[in-house]
Amino acid sequence: MVLLVRKLILVRWDMRLGPNALVQFPPEASFPPNETLLQIWAKHETTPNSDFVAIVDEEKQVKYCSLLKIDSKTHETFFIILELTVDSDVQIYQEILNSIGNELITNYNAPHFTHILSETYRAIKNYSEMDEKQLYFRLFEDNTRIHILQILRQGVISKRGLREKLRTQFGYTKLNIDLLLTPFQRLRLIKIINVPGEEESIFLVADLFAIRIPPAIRPNNHVIQEKIQQFFVKDRIILETELHKLFPIFEKREILQLINLIALHNENGLEFSVGLELLKNKKNLLLELEAANIIDISQENLIFLISDIQFLTHKPKFLLPILARRYKNEEISLDQLFKQLNLIL
After folding, report:
1. Based on CB atoms within 10 Å of each CB, which residue in 79, 112, 199, 314 is the most buried?
2. Could you tell me which of 126, 88, 104, 279 has the C-alpha nearest to residue 178?
3. What is the pLDDT of residue 87?
4. What Å distances lie between residue 258 and 65, 109, 119, 210, 290, CA to CA?
5. In this structure, which long-range contacts are made by residues 293-299, counting pairs with CB atoms below 8 Å and at least 24 apart in sequence?
């Protein structure tokens, strides 16, 4: 697989000396040349309406995207830079760089900064390689995001209010809220808007649920047909707790590749050896998929698709009575109420 994100680099701008490359991950590689850093600075200077810019080094066939951040306490200027493959879509990185920017520059001198840097790099790398289904599953990766979704289903809330609810209701402290909200933003489930008189407010603009769906191609095997019919006797809406359990399986790219391959061969089944080879002989993954009623392994050692998972989104109009009650109780402002209504009606 081509490595889309090659480096994460933190640069501080010195008014007298120019760019000062502070740290990068992975640490073994060399820093970008000073000329490249000056080009990034120049692009920021000539793009006054955006803190996010990109340049291409045609000779080295790499692309750099950079987010300009100013430390609110020291007023120092930082560039948070990603070195990417030349064909990367830089726009998908703007959200996550905005999300992690403050965390990086405010913790630069902290003892645990090396850990923060490495974890941030891995989060960006994993995020960039996810397809839409994996992004949906990522919402249910841990209980924190599940609890965030539950809170957002009560309507608009400020970031400060979200932190407080997560602390008082669920006991979470020292969370990077911006990073946790990134998949919600990329999936266009929320909008974060500055409302007059309020801190940044988070608005749920689309809710989601997941269902099991039968395979598009019907198997010729009568035993498998019967299993599919029995499985779909009742509705198959998936609970969030089940999605949480399924995440460790579906976060693996090879699992999605296998499911797509089985779906194409579902009429006569995919040979077990082919599936095992695709999963690099990890038989336990096949058994986990079978236990989750995603696949069935026949007596003839053929793999059939029993069900797949589909995520569906809808406008959260259920918020209407909740918003009316919260406004009456003075929990939200009139501006927040009108903005939320405009986003869901």
Report:
1. 79
2. 104
3. 82
4. 33, 44, 28, 20, 13
5. 293/212, 293/231, 294/259, 295/259, 295/262, 296/224, 296/227, 297/272, 298/221, 298/223, 298/224, 298/269
pLDDT digits (tens, 9 = 90+) for 90-145: 777 877 787 788 888 888 888 888 888 888 888 888 777 778 888 899 889 889 99
pLDDT digits (tens, 9 = 90+) for 218-249: 999 999 999 999 999 988 899 999 999 999 88
For residue 172, the one-letter residue type is: Y
- How far apart CA 307 and CA 310 sit, in angstroms, is 10
Q: Which helix (H) or strand (E) element contains residue 142?
A: none
Q: Which residues contact 112 (CB under 8 A, 6 or more apart)?
A: none
Lookup: tokens for 263: 């779906």
pTM tops 0.90, yes or no? no
Residue 27 has φ and ψ, to the nearest 5°, of: -75, -20
Distances (CA, A) of 113 to 81, 103, 310: 17, 10, 39
Smallest CA-to-CA distance from 82 within 94, 66, 98, 69 is with 66
Query: Using CA atoms, how far apart are residues 224 and 22, in angstroms rounded to an integer?
Result: 59
H or E element, residue 310 = strand 308-314
DSSP letter at 3 equals -
CA distances from 19 to 76, 152, 314 (A): 12, 41, 47
- What is the per-residue pLDDT across 194-215, written as a single tens digit (0 to 9) for each? 888 777 899 999 999 999 999 9
- CB under 8 A, 24+ apart: contacts of 228-233: 228/306, 228/307, 231/293, 231/306, 231/307, 232/307
Per-residue pLDDT averaged across 43-69, rounded?
Answer: 89
- Residue 184 pairs in a beta bridge with none
Q: In angstroms, what is the C-alpha Rg of the chain?
A: 24
